[in-house]
Amino acid sequence: MSKILIRGARVLGGEPQDVLIDGEVVEAVGSGLSAEGAEVVEADGKVLLPGLVDLHTHLREPGREDSETVLTGTRAAASGGFTAVFAMANTFPVADTAGVVEQVWRLGREHGYCDVQPIGAVTVGLEGRKLAELGAMHESAAGVTVFSDDGKCVDDAVMMRRALEYVKAFGGVVAQHAQEPRLTEGAQMNEGVVSAELGLGGWPAVAEESIIARDVLLAEHVGSRVHICHLSTAGSVEIVRWAKSRGIDVTAEVTPHHLLLTDELVRSYDPVYKVNPPLRTERDVHALREALADGTIDIVATDHAPHPHEDKDCEWAAAAMGMVGLETALSVVQETMVETGLLDWAGVADRMSSTPARIGRAGGHGRPVSAGEPANLTLVDTAYRGSVDPAGFASRSRNTPYAGRELPGRVTHTWLRGKATLVDGKLT
Amino acid sequence: MQRHLISAADLSRDDAVHVLDTAEEMARVADRPIKKLPTLRGRTIVNLFFEDSTRTRISFEAAEKRLSADVINFSAKGSSVSKGESLKDTAQTLEAMGVDAVVIRHGASGAPYRLATSGWIDAAVINAGDGTHQHPTQALLDAFTMRRRLVGRDTGLGRDLSGKRITIVGDVLHSRVARSNVDLLHTLGAEVTLVAPPTLVPVGVETWPCEVSYDLDSTLPKSDAVMMLRVQRERMNAAFFPTEREYSRRYGLDGDRMARMPEHAIVMHPGPMVRGMEITAAVADSDRCTVVEQVANGVSIRMAVLYLLLGGNEPAVAHARTTEEK
Amino acid sequence: MDKQDKQDKRDSQGSQHAQGPQHTQGSQDPRDARQEPRESDARPVLEGPDIARVLTRIAHEIVERAKGADDVVLLGIPTRGVFLGRRLAAKLEQITDRKIPVGSLDITMYRDDLRMHPPRALARTEIPGDGIDGKLVVLVDDVLFSGRTIRAALDALNDIGRPRAVQLAVLVDRGHRELPIRADYVGKNLPTSLRETVKVQLAEEDGRDTVLLGVKQTAPGAQH
Predict the structure, then answer these.
(1) Which domains, from first to last, does chain B contain?
(2) Least C-beta-crowded within 10 Å: which of A129, A262, B58, C74?
C-alpha cells in the first residue's frame, strides 16, 4: 500500500500539521513532512479525528435487508466518519448464537468500509427468559464483549443480575436498554405537557430512571460493569452521576437526537420523530449536554435505526420507532456541543472515538493520532454549513428527523487502517 | 376557518361563534316540511370509520344528506383495511373516486391530522374523533347546547359563553371529548373545571386552560353545566380505580348531588351513558339532562361545519385565481 | 369565516346586484368586482321621501291586484328586502286595517354561485305562524338584476310550502335579466349599463334612505 500525506490538518482541532500514513499505520505527525512517494490530501485546516466508533448501530442484517444491510450500513458509517460500529443484536434471527454474530462480523470484514463488531443478545430471542450463550459468542471469531437486548429491556432483576455476574468471567459488559415495560405499555411519546395535549400514550421518565437506578445498584452489588444505552432524561443523568460518585463501574451513552430535538416536534404527528426512548423536553436536552460535557455521560452513540419508508409514512401509532443517525451524528454533535462551547474537538474525539472503543474493547480503534498507531482517521470540514438531504444518504433508509435542517460540518475523508473509504465526501 | 377541522383548538372565538350561529339557522331546517337544502348537491363525502361509532356516523350522515351531499359510508371492519391496507392507501383509493371531503374516525391520535397534512389527499378532512386526542364537532355541539340553555336560543346569537362555569367529570385521561371541550370552552370564555380521580387526569394537565379538582361535591354548587364523561368498566382492571361502586360513590352523579347544583344548571353527557356508573337513571331521565338535545344539536352543528368547510369555492376556482395572480 | 368572508357577506347582501355577468366567470376575484361605489362618484337616484312614496304606491297596487290582500304574506329577502317588507306591511296595515303577516326568506343555501365564493354567513328565515300554504306570497327585494336571487328564492319557497301564487316586489329594477323572471311591482325602473352599480341604503341598516347609482371601481392592477 502506498503512502498518503494529509497536509495541514488540525489534529483534534489543534494547530495545522501534516500526517503521513504508510500502509495501515500512521508513520509520522509533524510539520513540513515530505510528500515524496505519497498521495497528497490537502486538508486545508480541516479537523482530523481518530475514526469514530459507534457503540449502538442497527444494521438490520440478517432479516430486515429492506431497511439496511451490513454493506449499506457500513457505507453510511464511513460517510459519517466512522471506522467501527457495534451492531445490535435485534436482527432476525436474533444475534444470540456464535453463528449469527460471526456472520455479521464476517460481512463487515468482507465489505471493508468499516469494522463491524457484533453485540450479542443477553437472553435467547431477546425474550428475557433464558440467558443466551454469552461465553460462546465471546469465544467466537467475532469476539463479542458487549451484550444487549436493546429494543427490549432486561427487566427481570434476577436475569439482569446473572448477566452482570456472568460476563465478569471474560470482561464483558451488559448494555441496558432502560425501559420498565409495565410503565410504558402503549407508550407513544414522552409523558408530559405535549402528550397530554396530543392524546398520545405517555412514556414517563421514571420508566427509564427506575431501571437505571436498579441496575447501577446491581452492578455495585455484584462488582460488574454496566453500560446504559441512550440515556434520555435529566433524572437519569442525576442517577448516573450519583453512581459514578460512589465508584460504581457504569458508563452511559446519549444519542445525537436527544442532544438536539424535543417532544415539541411530535405536535406534527410526523412519525419521523417517533423514537425509543422518546424525544424529551428542553430541560432534558440541556441536562444531557451538560452531562456529556462533564463526563457523566461517557459517549455519543447513534442508535442508527433504519426503517423503510412505509413504516414511517403512516399514522403515528402504527409507525416504527427509530431514526437513522450515522451520517448526521458528527454534525449534530458539532451543532450541540462544539458550537455551544461545551466540548472542544479533543473532547469530541474522546466521546465519539476513544471512550466508545475502550468500553467496547474495540482494538485498534479510538487510538491517538500519533506515529505507530493504526491509521483509522476521519477528516472533517468544520466550516461547512448545509442542509441535510436524505437523498444523498448511503444508508438504505431515509428516516432522518433532520431533512432540510441546516447543520454544520461535513466529513470529507475516512481512512480504515490506511485505506480510504471516503474521499472528498464520496465513498470509494 | 381552515380547510379542515382537526382540533377544537384550531377555532378562534369568532370562528366558533360563527359555527354556532350557522348551526342555529341549520336547526330551523329540521322544523320544515322538507328537511333538506340543496347546498352540497354534487359533493361527495365519505364517512371513513376505523372505529365503530354508529351514533357519530349517523349524525354526520344525517347532516350530509340534509345538505344534499352524496354520502359514502366506509367502515374499516371487514374491509381491506383489516387485511393490512394502510390509512394512506385507503384514503387515496377513496379520493380516486372523487371524494370532496373525508369525515374520519380513527383509533390513533393524530390520524386525521396526518391525513390532512401529509399530502396524501386533497380532500377536506373533518375529524370525527381520533384516539384520545380530539372530537371537535362534539365540543361544538356541547357548546351549542350550553349556549341555548344558559344564554338563550335567540339571545345567544353572536355571543359566546363568557363567565359560564362548566364542570367536566370523569375519565379525562382517555377522553377526546374532554380535550376538545377544554379547548373550545376556554376559547368561548367559559371557566372549566375538570373533576376526576387523580389516576384519570393526564400528567401535563397543568398547562391546560382549566382548573382541576378531585372533589365533585365542592364543585357542583359552582357549576352552570356539569358534563359527565363515560367511564369504561375495563379501566378498573388497570387499577385506575378500585371498584365500580367506589367510583360512583365518589364521582357519579345521583339525585342528591344534582340537588346541590344551582337551579338553572344542566347535566350533559356525550353518550353512550353507563347508567349506574357515572350517572344514575333518575338524573339521566330528568329535565335537566340534555342528552337527547345534544344528539339533535349534533346534526345541526355538523351541517354548519360541512356548509362552512364545503359550501364555498371549489378548488378549481381557487386554482384559477392563484394562476392569475402570478 | 375569516375577515374576508365577513366582508363578502356584507357585499353580497348589500350590493350583490352590482355584479355583472362577466364577473361570474371567475376571471378575477369576484370580491374586487363588487366594491361599493365611492360616495363621491355615486349619484342619488331616489332619496328618502321618494322611497316612502314609491312604497306607498306599491302597497296600493298590491291591495288592488290582490283584491283586498286578504291572504297576502310578505317575505323579504335579507338584508334590505326584509326592511322593505316590514315597511310595506306597515303601509298595507294602514290601508287595509288588518294585520299583515311578514317574514324573511334567506336564499343563501339555494344560490347557484355558492362555489364561487367563500361560504357566506346565513341570514334568518322567518316564516309567519300560519305558514304559506295556499297564501299569496309577495317576495320583496331591493334591486332586481340578473334574476338569480329570485330563482333561488322560488326554490327555497318550494321547500317550505305551496303558496296559491307568488309575486315579486322590488324597489329598483335595473335590467340585465339572465333568467325569465319579472317583477309584479316595481318602485323605479332604472336603465343601467353593466359598468354601473346600484346601491340601496335604508335607514334600518345604513342610517339613511337612498338609492345610489355609481360607476364600478376596477380592482387596482386588474386588466380590462
Answers:
(1) 8-135+295-325 (3.40.50.1370), 136-290 (3.40.50.1370)
(2) A129
Cβ separation B33–C161 shorter than 8 A: yes
Minimum distance, in Å, between the CA of residue C165 and any CA atom of chain B: 19
User: Which residues touch A379 (CB under 8 Å, ≥6 apart)?
Assistant: A6, A9, A41, A43, A46, A47, A48, A49, A411, A412, A413, A414
Mutate to test the interface with B, among A198, A264, A281, A313 (most CBs of B within 10 A): A198
The number of angstroms, rounded, from the C-alpha of B133 to the middle of its chain's C-alpha atoms is 11
Give the Cα separation of C102 and A302 in Å (integer): 76
Please state the domain count of chain A.
2
The verdict on A116 and A252 lying in the same domain is yes
**Element at B299 (helix H, strand E):** helix B291-310
**Which H or E run includes B170?**
none
CB B227 within 8 A of CB B168: yes
Structural domain that includes position C110: 48-194
pLDDT in tens, B122-134: 999 999 999 999 9
pTM: 0.89
Amino acid of residue A61: E
CA dist A147 and B285 (Å) reads 63
Annotated ligand binding at B230? The verdict is yes
Expressed in percent and rounded to 5, the helix, strand and coil fractions of chain C are 35, 20, 40
Whether A376 has a binding-site annotation, put simply, is no
| Order of all β-strands in the sheet with B70-75 | B70-75, B44-49, B101-106, B124-130
- Segment holding A41, helix H or strand E: strand A38-42
3-state secondary structure of C105: coil
CATH number, domain with residue C115: 3.40.50.2020
- Residue C137 resides in a domain: yes
Percent of chain A with pLDDT over 90: 99
Q: Say how far apart CA A242 and CA B178 lie, in whole Å.
A: 41
Supply φ then ψ for residue C106, to 5 degrees: -85, 130
Q: How far apart are CA B55 and CA A126, in angstroms?
A: 44
Specify burial of residue A182 (Cβ count, 10 A radius: 0-12, 13-18, 19+).
exposed
B10 and A CB contact within 8 Å: no
Q: A336 and A390 in one domain?
A: no
At A142-174, the pLDDT tens digits run: 999 999 999 999 999 999 999 999 999 999 999
Interface contact flag, C109 B38, Cβ < 8 Å: yes
A115 carries an active-site annotation: no
Cβ burial of A395 (10 Å; 0-12, 13-18, 19+) is: buried
What integer pLDDT is reported at residue A133 of this predicted model?
97
Any known ligand binding at A221? Answer: no
How does pLDDT run across C90-134, given as a tens digit for each residue? 999 999 999 999 999 999 999 988 888 888 889 999 999 899 999
At C174, is the secondary structure helix, strand, or coil? coil
- Domain span at A167: 52-360
Chain A: residues touching B (Cβ < 8 Å): 188, 191-200, 202, 204, 268-270, 310, 313-318
Classify residue C174: in a domain, yes or no.
yes
Q: How many helices (H) and strands (E) does chain B have?
A: 12, 9
Each residue of B65-77: b (16+ CB within 10 Å) or e? bbbbbbbeebbbe
Q: Do B317 and C2 make contact, defined as CB atoms within 8 angstroms? A: no
- The CATH number linked to A115 is 3.20.20.140
- What is the SS3 assignment for B108-167? CCCHHHHHHHCCCCCCEEEEEEECCCECHHHHHHHHHHHHHHHHCCCCCCCCCCCCCEEE
Place of cell 449499506: A72
Asked if B136 and B178 count as a contact pair (C-beta separation under 8 A), the reply is no
The shortest C-alpha distance from A194 to chain B (Å) reads 7
For chain C, which residues lie within 8 Å of any Cβ of chain B, measuring from their own Cβ?
A: 1-2, 26-29, 106, 109-110, 114-125, 155, 158-161
